[in-house]
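Give me the fold.
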Amino acid sequence: MNNLSTKQKAFYKKVAEILWEKWDPIGVNDGDNELDDEYDSYVPHIFRLAIEGNDAFRIAASLTSSVEQNIGLGPDKEHDRKVAELIVKTKIEMLG
């Protein structure tokens, strides 16, 4: 992460916030607690997908795959798509 620009570092942190606040597939964020590291292991991959210019469809597919394969829950593809769209929108706003 040391070789990232200041804007990229800020976006990386924003991806972590989005995964915690909006994605939260296991429901650990009850709204009263601060940013947790629960989903930090997913941030690098999602960040890279966004930085590389992947669209919301591709990012959503990765989120859905993580829910199914790593977390072991059933997918909510519509929710994952909305989160992915937010990530893409945030990337454009923060990085262009």
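The first helix runs from residue 6 to 23.
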